[in-house]
Amino acid sequence: MRDNSILVKGAEQMGIVLSDKQQQQFETYYDYLVAQNEVMNLTAITEYKEVLTKHFLDSLFLAQSLKEFAGKKVLDLGTGAGFPGIPLKIAFPETEFVLMDSLNKRIGFLNRVIDLLDLKKITAVHARAEEAARKSEYREQFDYCVSRAVARLATLSEFCIPFVKPGGSFISYKAGDCREECEEAKNAIKILGGKLISAKEMFLPDTEIARTFVMIRKEKHTPEKYPRGQGKPLKQPL
Known about the structure:
By secondary structure, the chain is an alpha/beta fold. About 35% of the residues lie in helices and about 20% in strands. It contains 9 helices and 7 strands.
């Protein structure tokens, strides 16, 4: 096995102890990610140690913001190549995950990863957020919705909050300082039934890479008309 001490030690600093099996799952995931990246656009980051830090540890870092995670039901919206969902699933095998993405090619990739790693209680779903959030099997069915997707927080909130059950939380990954973004999203969050709880800036272990985790708690049901269709969350944020 390659020198994966960055991953193992970084995870330990987060309170996550990776077994030999889990370490091998990350190795297999890396190999398949890089191989498939030759034929489809999955990531601009392919160097081994960079993937360990900027994808795997970055994904696991989310666990620092959650008090209760094991045994919950989590939606990773706009999962792309499986971040943060697949690394979190490897680390927390008893947690149920749904990975959702609008590009079917990526869903095919994720299903192959799920098979290769022999992961259970995880599903990859091809769907657009504004359509899936209107289906009873997804709307307000999750304890947590997480997203590393690149969009303004007001837009992400409209896509993500409808999936969260009252009492659950939406956690958004942001890079660096996002106070202005949080301020401009407050109206949208309130309309959607949420409340901004915290925006905690943290640094990945042994790096200068800053991440802010925005925690939004779902306090009441989202009005039925949200999320809006026809690209309105992007074009006309609440």
